Fold:
Amino acid sequence: MSNIKIRVFGSDECRKCQFYLQFLNISCVEYEYLDVLDFKNDKLCEEYDIDELPYTQIVKGEEVLLSVTGNINVVWLLRRKKELEIKHEFKSRTNRSSSTC
Structure:
């Protein structure tokens, strides 16, 4: 199972965010939603210098693999996520096989 996930920063007051989240939900895309107006998310918003919404990341743990601002085509997003999963799985297998030699 992949530990690569989609994380979306948005706001309930942002029309573009609500539109985007509707598409993600209709498409049954799993994602973590972080409200930029919630003070608990201030540190992350500052760390990633979020100044436009929605802001989407593909992450592995806390490592950001891809960041995109604005409404994104859901198919494109899922393809990028799959490509990153394959890339990281390949790296993981290569590292395991080289360490056993």
